[in-house]
C-alpha cells in the first residue's frame, strides 16, 4: 500500500446493478453501507446501513463486519473480526460482490483496465498492397493493421460509439424512407 493517490487501494463492484463502480480507499477508517454518508455507498436492500469498515493503517488494509444482518463474506467465507485484505480478494455484501485491488502490491490487473505506464510498442510494419496508391504516413488502410498490437481502450470505445451512431442513423433513415 502506498500514500500516492494512484497507488491507493480500490474496491470495485463486480456484480449487481452497481457493477463497475470503484471506490478509492484513503488512509483511515472508511464505512461501507447503504446509508447516506457512507464512504462506500452501496444501494442494495441486503446491505446494512453501516455494513462494514475498511481501515488503512500502517501499510495494512483491514476489513471488519460491523454486526450486519446478512454478514460480510471474504473469498466465500463469512468474516469474523478484523481480516487483512490482499490484492484480488473478493468481498460479498448482500447481493453485491466487490474486488479488492491494491496497485501498490498488485500481482493482478484491475478488472482488465491495465494502463501501460511506458510508451506502447511501435506497431509492426504493414506491407504495402501489391498495387494501387500507397497510403499517407500513419493512415490506416484496413482493420488488419490493428492485429498483432492491442487496440487502445479509447479507440475501442470510439469504434463502439461510431458503430452505434451508424446503426441508429441507418435505422432512422429506413424508418423515414419507408413511411
Structural class of the helix and strand makeup?
A: alpha+beta
Order of H and E elements: EEEEEEEEEEEH
**Biggest sheet, in brief?**
6 strands, antiparallel
> How many beta strands in the DSSP annotation?
11
Number of helices: 1
Strand content: 25-35%
The backbone outline, from C-alpha atoms, is elongated
Keywords:
179 residues; alpha+beta; five-stranded mixed β-sheet; elongated
Write up this protein.
The structure is a single chain. By secondary structure, the chain is an alpha+beta fold. Helices cover 14% and strands 26% of the residues. The protein is built from one helix and eleven strands, in the order βββββββββββα. It has one helix at 153-177, and strands spanning 10-15, 22-24, 28-33, 40-41, 52-57, 60-65, 72-74, 77-78, 82-84, 90-93, 96-101. The strands form two sheets. Strands 2-1-11-10-7-8 form a six-stranded antiparallel β-sheet, with no helix packed on it. A five-stranded mixed β-sheet has the order 4-3-5-6-9, with no helix packed on it. Strand 1 (10-15) and strand 2 (22-24) form a beta hairpin. The N and C termini lie far apart (62 Å).
Give a brief outline of the structure.
With 179 residues, the chain is of the alpha+beta class.
Topology:
Layout: E1 10-15, E2 22-24, E3 28-33, E4 40-41, E5 52-57, E6 60-65, E7 72-74, E8 77-78, E9 82-84, E10 90-93, E11 96-101, H1 153-177
Parallel strand pairs: 3-4
Antiparallel strand pairs: 1-2, 1-11, 3-5, 5-6, 6-9, 7-8, 7-10, 10-11
Amino acid at each position: 500500500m502506498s500514500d500516492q493517490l494512484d497507488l491507493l487501494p480500490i474496491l470495485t463492484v463486480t456484480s449487481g446493478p452497481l457493477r463497475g463502480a470503484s471506490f478509492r480507499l484513503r488512509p483511515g477508517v472508511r464505512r461501507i453501507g447503504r446509508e447516506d454518508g457512507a464512504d462506500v455507498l452501496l444501494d442494495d436492500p441486503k446491505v446494512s446501513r453501516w455494513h462494514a469498515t475498511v481501515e488503512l493503517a500502517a501499510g495494512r488494509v483491514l476489513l471488519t463486519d460491523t454486526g450486519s444482518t446478512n454478514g460480510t463474506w471474504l473469498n466465500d467465507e463469512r468474516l469474523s473480526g478484523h481480516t487483512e485484505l490482499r490484492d484480488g480478494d473478493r468481498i460479498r455484501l448482500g447481493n453485491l460482490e466487490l474486488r479488492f485491488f491494491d496497485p501498490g502490491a498488485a500481482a493482478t490487473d484491475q478488472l482488465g483496465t491495465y494502463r501501460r505506464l511506458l510508451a506502447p510498442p511501435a506497431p509492426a510494419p504493414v506491407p504495402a498492397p501489391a498495387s494501387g496508391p500507397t497510403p499517407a504516413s500513419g493512415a490506416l488502410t484496413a482493420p488488419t493493421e490493428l492485429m498483432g498490437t492491442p487496440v487502445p481502450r479509447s479507440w475501442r470505445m470510439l469504434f463502439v460509439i461510431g458503430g452505434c451512431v451508424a446503426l441508429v442513423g441507418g435505422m432512422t433513415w429506413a424508418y423515414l424512407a419507408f413511411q
